Amino acid sequence: MKIAFYAPMKAPDHPVPSGDRQMATLLIKALERGGHEVLLASRLRAYMSRPSSETLKTLLASSRDESARIAAQWDTGSPPDLWFTYHPYYKALDLIGPALSRRFSMPYVTCEASYARKRDHDAWKDAQECLKLGLAQSSLNIFFTERDREGLAEILPASTLAELKPFTDMTARSAPRGVQLDSTRLITVAMMREGDKFESYRLLAASLEALLDLTWHLTVIGDGPLAKEVRGLFRRLPEARVAWKGELARHEVASELGKAGLFLWPGFGEAYGMAFLEAQAAGLPVIAQRTAGVPTVVRHGETGILVAPGDVTAFSAAVRGCILDPSETRRLGGQAQQFVESERSVDQAAAKLGTLLATLMCRAGT
What we know:
Blueprint: E1 2-6, H1 19-33, E2 37-40, H2 53-76, E3 82-86, H3 97-103, E4 108-111, H4 125-135, E5 140-143, H5 146-153, E6 161-163, E7 185-189, H6 196-209, E8 217-221, H7 227-233, E9 242-246, H8 250-259, E10 262-264, H9 274-281, E11 286-289, E12 304-307, H10 312-324, H11 326-343, H12 346-364
Parallel strand pairs: 1-2, 1-3, 3-4, 4-5, 5-6, 7-8, 7-10, 8-9, 10-11, 11-12
Helix pairs in contact: 1-12, 6-10, 9-11
């Protein structure tokens, strides 16, 4: 099939790295691996950081113009077989796909759409109404986590919902680590911005303060508007204990993961966390919180350790246990790598997406 792909929050070739951009890229790769032709329908960013009626009006006008541009191209050429939108939610609206899907009589598909009823009655209610109107037209909504499924099930028929497990690309993974894994080499990868990311850095720093009696070294990969403030959270640690790498290219991140032995990230508010999958693909066990969608990608006691949200003592104790028991850390790391390779690869995603889309097109009679 020819598939029109759109990510309203951040296009897959957006210059700023993030988990959203990465998953959009991976979805395109999986669709192409399944033999489909994927065209990036639009790079229009329809994202609002704060509720604003004026911003929403501007986005609606821009989207109408973009829809007209795309329709003109398709009128003189060959329109796609379906529209595929990644991650529409109240802050990032698909204001293009539903209209074009109606005009060209093509199925409308979403992946990782999110709906929270509380937004129906707060300052986001106008944006939420736009989201609901678009989702009401969908033929298939692919979800990654149970939380997203529960939200969508409040407003959409169960027959339109289908699960796809979060996945990552194994081509850049490390070789099996085995005895080479060093449990004292700690690493984290995350953007440095306000909110959940900053709070995760705060908990990580606090947990490491209780481990200064042990030998360890932390590598921090990431940058952002709060880089200075994040560094300040670690001021009580000896400077030699922490290496600040800043923002790195993907191959450089993979290289650093290959040198580490344990991945640490509390993960407040993570939908699931692409960094967790990448770390496990590199053979690293993960220590994180049992929160939001993290259990979707980290199996407690099998591929890592999950602790109660906000429990600094428990997080610190989990890190201590792994440092002091390198054989257990290696066991978890080996199982983490096997988990991603056998269950969360692009090939598995391509097969699942192929089945879902073929079933959809059969139902649509095309």
